[in-house]
Amino acid sequence: MHPTINHLIQLQELTLIRVEQRTQRGGERLDELNASVDSLSGQLPADVQGTVGRLLKRDPLFIVPMSNGCCTGCGLKLPTSHIQAVKISEHVQVCPICTRILYHQEGSARHVGKAPRRTEPRKIGISRFSAPSLMIPRLNAATRDEAIREMAAKMQTEGFVDDAQKLVEAALRREAIVSTAVDHGLAFPHVRGVEGGGLTLGLGISPKGIKFDGHDKTLTKMVFFLVIPTAASAFYLKLLAGLAETFADAEARKALTAEEEPDKLWKALVKLTKKTIP
Questions:
Q1: Residues 201-256: pLDDT tens digits?
Q2: What CATH number has the domain bearing residue 10?
Q3: Mean pLDDT, rounded, for 106-132
Q4: Does 160 map to a domain?
Q5: Which terminus of the chain, N or C, has fewer Cβ atoms within 10 Å?
Q6: Cα dist. 206→16, 144, 194, 239 in Å?
Q7: In the chain, at which residue ranges do the beta strands (DSSP E only) sit?
């Protein structure tokens, strides 16, 4: 892989984390993230800096993986010569349509779930991203790492992804930068760039609570685990905001944690988020 590509992937991750922090934690650690973003940006070649700057004015997604010969940013089927150029990676390549920088991604987890049938009823709200089979009313995990491992394994067992271990590794790398735990005992561990399907959400409840953030004394009792394809990288921020808004309310948290069966937990989640996640 072209060395600049690794650099850009790190820069985009920090840029998206900075957006998360603004919406989820009221600007906590923004100075630190701003300094890291500025440092990484300053190390880029001048022409790449210009490209990134132009793309960031449009949206925070400036570098995307190529999947099955397509740009995951806009869905364009790339010419064979372009696919080979991205794979060889001798030079930075961009999508001819959306102009995002492209890279060849190997070794990541993938969605493997089947697409819904046309005869199935149209799903609305959070039911588009979750399923009763991904609800865990009582997590066995006692630590953050165990919780992520348990929820990733659930996604693989239920046929949503192909490699739980890769999800765990990616989620823990993300947690090492800035914890995804927020106020009210909520946490949102996630993995971006899981191609092959749509955004998917699992929920695990820990009645005793888990120490998710080593710098925070608050225990996490509700763990929302998300796998996010590139195309949903902007939308998932709205999803996080909707979940945080819903469960800032103590009564909503109480109603959710009271459920002891996966089906009932899922129905409660869909009902409680009806207004915040249309």
A1: 999 999 999 999 877 778 999 999 999 999 898 888 889 999 999 999 999 999 99
A2: 1.10.287.1490
A3: 76
A4: yes
A5: C
A6: 28, 11, 26, 21
A7: 63-67, 70-71, 93-94, 101-104, 130-136, 181-182, 186-187, 190-192, 200-210, 220-228
Give the total number of structural domains in the chain.
2
Which residue type does 215 have? H
What pLDDT was estimated at residue 19? 86
> For residue 259, what are its two tokens?
């459920």
Higher pLDDT, 196 or 249: 249
Residue 214 exposed, middle or buried by CB count within 10 Å (0-12, 13-18, 19+): exposed
Residue 119 pLDDT > 50:
no
Q: Are residues 62 and 130 in the same domain?
A: no
Mode of pairing for the β-strands spanning 181-182 and 186-187: antiparallel
Question: Within a domain: residue 119?
Answer: no
Range of the domain at 169: 125-272
87 with 132, same domain: the answer is no
Query: Measured in whole angstroms, how far is the alpha carbon of residue 99 from the centre of its chain?
Result: 23
For residue 117, what pLDDT is reported?
Answer: 47
End position of a domain, from candidates 49, 70, 104: 104
Contacts (Cβ under 8 Å, ≥6 apart) of 180: 20, 174, 187, 188, 189, 190, 212
What is the rounded CA–CA span in Å between residue 156 and residue 141?
17
